[in-house]
Design goal:
By secondary structure, the protein is an alpha+beta fold. The chain has twelve helices and twelve strands.
Length: 485
């Protein structure tokens, strides 16, 4: 058995154990972000006698896995693909992830607009250069002497894409670093030095470049991504991913279906929120926070760190979180010596993935919001196989939404409904723009195989988007239900 096959067997065991508790476990971890999740519960009703069970599919005996064949997979998928739900330009690739055998291919080496399946490329690159345990630090430093007459301090962003203003409920996962905790630590340090008042600066200069990526709608356009709540300007200091309440204040929670306009000044908003927490902790803040680029190396007063990268990637994939994706792309750029901009992040992700043997990626951002992006189905499958073969990349699979349970595959989402065979056995990253729908993931099939699949369509009419998303769920369900011998 080759190394990939051994890793596949191990991964099947992990996925099998995870699936048993997926519904309840995911719900307990992510209640705020998965409000639409219908959690299976144990019934208090008496158990009734079971009727005759379903007959095994032809050729499938209990305890024996029947290998999927190209003819069998084609029979299961070709009618759905030919039905036109994904439009006239369709890319498909289905492979046995244990053996690498291609079972179905259509335009597999052709570039398609990937939408948010781009996040698989970004996640892989981030894990490659930063490592699964990487964290990001937000700090406060003195900008001069600390005296009883006051001090100047600077809030310094470290590019933590999950930084929150207020503490999250204890049941939320992951638990982000908060400005509340940072302010409390800062206040203790200041009081220890006899300081009771400060002037506050903030440094958001870790990242740079334009607010928009190539291909994004212009800021003045009705459908621009910031005003429609899809993303915020990407800065080295931001809080709650730039999400705002209807009153224009930081959201203080993580609601992936909050589509109110995002902040245009996330760094300033973070500094103001931090000042409020400092005041609550007994430190007077004079004046308004002022931008202080490249604050230097003054005395460290306090710091908070993000959850580890594996948890951040899970949040990004489950929510399809664009701010996290763009921030991670910039972190990859910094780690590889490139400018921390949209173009620098995209170039870094492509270069790192290429070193891992993944070709066929041409992107202009890290989230997939740009319609100029192009990724081949073969590249997406390669990313999935890397996640299977190397523990370093495992969170690319483990963090993906689960059909019928979490994130963009949860009940009530636009991607669905799924067949019973797919529930809990399909993990996939989705993507959609107005004329684009894509899904890339894995399925543990009825026939006993772990298959990887990619389905992409990028040329249908906008009015057919819901049909395309539903078709993707049908295709994934067909893979999961496949005996396909």
């Amino acid at each position: 058995m080759n190394r990939l096959a051994r890793m596949a067997v191990a991964t099947l065991a992990v996925l099998g154990l995870f699936t048993v508790g997926a519904g309840v476990a995911v719900a307990k971890m992510l209640p705020a972000r998965l409000a639409r999740l219908a959690v299976p519960r144990v019934s208090g009703a008496p158990v009734t006698a079971a009727g005759p069970g379903p007959r095994p599919a032809t050729g499938i005996l209990p305890g024996r896995a029947v290998g999927a064949t190209s003819a069998g997979v084609a029979s299961a998928l070709s009618g759905l693909i030919a039905g036109g739900g994904l439009g006239p330009h369709v890319g498909v690739l289905v492979t046995n992830l244990t053996t690498g055998r291609v079972l179905y291919a259509q335009n597999a080496s052709t570039g398609f607009t990937p939408a948010s399946t781009t996040k698989l490329a970004t996640a892989t690159a981030a894990l490659a250069v930063l490592g699964p345990a990487a964290t990001f630090t937000t700090s406060v430093r003195a900008a001069g002497p600390l005296t009883a007459r006051g001090a100047r301090i600077v809030l310094i962003g470290g590019g933590d894409p999950t930084l929150a203003a207020a503490p999250f409920p204890a049941a939320d996962y992951p638990q982000p670093a908060t400005l509340a905790a940072l302010a409390a630590r800062t206040a203790r340090a200041l009081r220890a030095s006899g300081v009771r008042s400060v002037r506050l600066g903030y440094d958001q200069a870790l990242f740079s470049g334009p607010v928009q990526a190539a291909g994004w709608p212009a800021l003045g356009a009705k459908d621009n991504y910031i005003s429609t709540g899809n993303v915020a300007p990407i800065t080295g200091l931001e809080v709650d991913q730039g999400r705002l309440t209807s009153q224009g204040t930081p959201e203080n929670s993580d609601d992936p279906v909050n589509f109110l306009p995002r902040s245009m000044t996330p760094g300033l908003d973070a500094a103001r929120a931090y000042a409020t927490w400092l005041a609550r902790d007994g430190i007077t803040v004079f004046g308004q926070p002022a931008a202080v680029p490249r604050a230097g190396r003054g005395r460290l007063l306090a710091a908070v760190t993000s959850p580890p990268l594996t948890q951040i990637i899970g949040q990004m994939l489950v929510e399809s979180n664009n701010v996290i994706a763009e921030t991670l792309a910039r972190q990859v750029a910094i780690a590889t010596g490139r400018p921390a901009t949209f173009s620098g992040g995209a170039a870094a992700v492509m270069a790192v993935d290429a070193r891992l043997g993944v070709r066929g990626i041409r992107i202009y951002d890290g989230s997939g919001l740009s319609p100029l992006n192009s990724i081949t189905p073969r590249a997406l499958i390669r990313l999935l196989r890397l996640a299977l073969a190397r523990p370093r990349f495992r969170s690319v699979i483990i963090g993906a939404p689960v059909a019928g349970f979490s994130g963009t595959l949860a009940p009530g989402s636009y991607f669905g409904p799924f067949s019973p065979a797919a529930l809990g056995t399909v993990r996939a990253k989705t993507g959609n723009l107005s004329s684009v729908a894509a899904m890339a993931g894995i399925a543990y099939t009825r026939g006993g195989q772990l298959l990887g699949f990619v389905f992409m369509g990028d040329s249908f009419a906008k009015k057919h988007l819901l049909l395309a998303m539903s078709t993707l769920a049908q295709l994934a369900s067909a893979v999961a239900g496949c005996g396909c011998g």
